[in-house]
Amino acid sequence: MKRLMPDSLRGWVFSVLLTVIVLINVTSLFFYFVFREEIAASASASQAAEQIIALKRLIETVPQDEQVALIERLSSPAMTLLLTPRPIVHESDDQLSSRVVLAKLRREFPKGTEIRADTRIAQRGFPDSDFTEAQGISENVETEPDGAESFFSPNEQGLFTVSIKVGAQTWFNTRVRLTLDEPSEQFPTVLWLTLVSIIIGGVALWGVRRATGPLSVFAFAAERLGVDVNAEPLSEEGPSEVRRAARAFNTMQMRLKRFIQDRTHMLAAISHDLRTPITRLRLRAEFVEDDRERERMLSDLAEMESMISATLAFARDDAANEPVSYIDVAAVLASLCADQASAGSAVSYTGPDSFELLARPIALKRAVNNIVENAVKYGQCARVIFQSTSDEVQITVDDDGPGIDESDRERVFEPFTRLESSRSRETGGTGLGLTISRNAIRSMGGDLDLRNRPQGGLRATIVLPIAGAELLADQ
To answer: Has this prediction a pTM greater than 0.90?
Structure first.
């Protein structure tokens, strides 16, 4: 069941709307097929009631002594009229058509007028005029069930009878033939409802896509912010909730950007202020007569300047500010390894000769170079392997060094962190190399991970998503 359930908010909302549409249509079809005959009969009965009201008003326009003759002339097979001293309808039934007729007639006739209606299919027939004259029914008609069966003919489907008391001893009776439409075929009805459901479903899908679209924009903006804090702010357009969320997101991005800028400016100011005394100290060290002491002082000053430069580069995060472009990653890696090998280092490259990827060239080269130098320095060699899939590229750098403890795998990425057991201070370094490398890789939507190899040594793995190229291209 979980596999069949939608995974996105858009899918959930559309599924709910589609389910509601289907339930409404199924319910409509059910009531249509179950009650369509009753509804049609009620509509026809309402029309017949209007005809009775019109006849009643017409009869009232002539003198009373002429009303009987007019009723005889107006009587037809579709509507038989008859005046009797007793009602033809003994008791009203409870059919919907009867209730409709009674409601309409009671609004037309004076309050308290006795009106009866019967639409039962098996009800007694209606006496014709010849039988009435022969039996003298106009003078003394019996309508009780037991006494009337002799002159009543079987009733037809679609007929109903109405008796209205119009005088102390006079009842106006009429039999109306209902005009019932033949039930239409089911297929066109189902076809039309299906077509309407498809149209409504299409409109619902469009509405859901439009309503949930901003969520995708926010997700994309959050991913982009993770790799570039200087990205363009979101457009503050759309419904009020979307505008408010976009405004809050832009405010957060502006505060993060301001925080980083303030930190960079502070470190730049410190670096500038420290360079002046370092320069003075270097000049003074030149006047030290002891060669050994002078070399130590100059080495310490150079290390301090290197630390300041590395710290400033880390604070500026130059990798995130570098523009992206298509580069031949395989060629860059092969060239880097060839340069290291020509310098006497045990560095090799395994992979394709060419592979283009949208990335930050200097940042990527610096990150890989830092890792290769660390592998050579602490692991005696570096074996660079480049692989690619449909979704990502993978660069691994293996060495034969002592590796690192599992507890230190993440700690080595912290700024100014150096591991004493495997990374000697005498080799130099500020403890920012891996930090800068991981920041550079993450600025391109990838990641850097360190793991000990089962056969010994350390493996650094760089993963860059190929799909992330679209993210970088929009920055």
So the answer is: no
